[in-house]
Amino acid sequence: MFRRDGKTAIVTGSGSGIGREISLRFAAQGAVVAVADVNMDGAQSVADEITAAGGTAYAQKLDVSSQAAADEAVAEIVRRHGKLDILVNNAGIGFVGNALETGDDDLDKLYAVNVKGVFHCSKAAVTQMLAQDPKGGRIVNIGSVAGMVSVGRRFAYCATKGAVLSMTQSLAMDFIDQGIRCNSISPGTIESPFVEGYLQRFHAGEIEETRAQLHARQPIGRMGRPDEIAPLALYLVSDESGFVTGANYVIDGGLTAR
């Protein structure tokens, strides 16, 4: 079940955290994975981990804020393996601040990665998916509960993740007749290098106190783990999910149900 033998995938922001776990899961199910990240050390480490386990992967330098870089990442997997079947738009950055605490530069940085990054990579991927024979493919966007409900002092992050949900629906409907399915996953707070970086940047003097608050914010009593997100991503790119498109799946320990 959920085997992806012979399929090719690009997973953005996959040098750590959720992207790493998705890459490992895809490769374990037979997919060829381009481990794409702006941090090549992280990408190479994950690619090496996959190949050591008997899978097929390579590290791909990718700054998702650049359309040229996204086009090159797609071109490279096609050069190596002849096609692109799967794109996971996982790369993202965060910022702490309400509307008054957020500057133009802060909003622009998040927009460049969280919104334009999804646009750039999806545009490059869809172009290839429609050009190949047979046409079609699978796209999974990693959103956030912050795109669905208010999270305190996350004005820019909430705005950009809300856009991810809208882009997911648009992509799904615009290309539904051309063999492309697009869905999104909205995690709650996931214990990962992303969160660790947030703690170091915005709560350096109160890391453990803030970490405890993040655990408690989920009604289930803890933050999630990357390996609790990856199985859903695998399902959404599998043949078993053939009737699913334009959907958003929440994995948040009950946060949005409270």
Give a concise summary:
The model has no long low-confidence stretch (mean pLDDT 97). This protein has a seven-stranded parallel sheet, with helices on both faces. The chain has 258 residues and is an alpha/beta fold.
Care to describe what's here?
With 258 residues, the chain is α/β, with parallel strands linked by helices. Helices cover 45% and strands 15% of the residues. It has 8 helices and 7 strands. The protein is globular and about 50 Å long.
What are the low-pLDDT stretches, counting only 5+ consecutive residues below 50?
Answer: none
Number of helices: 8
Total beta-strand segments = 7
Task: Supply Rg.
Answer: 17 Å
Q: Output the strand order for the largest sheet.
A: 3-2-1-4-5-6-7
C-alpha geometry: globular
Main sheet properties: 7 strands, parallel
Mean pLDDT: 97
Can you give the helix content as a percent range?
Answer: 40-55%
How many angstroms does the end-to-end distance come to? Answer: 33 Å
- Listing every helix as H and every strand as E from the N terminus to the C terminus, the arrangement reads EHEHEHEHEHEHHHE
Keywords:
alpha/beta, 7 strands
SSE topology:
Layout: E1 8-12, H1 17-28, E2 32-37, H2 40-52, E3 56-61, H3 67-81, E4 86-89, H4 104-131, E5 137-142, H5 155-174, E6 180-187, H6 193-202, H7 207-217, H8 230-236, E7 248-251
Parallel strand pairs: 1-2, 1-4, 2-3, 4-5, 5-6, 6-7
Helix pairs in contact: 1-2, 1-8, 3-4, 4-5
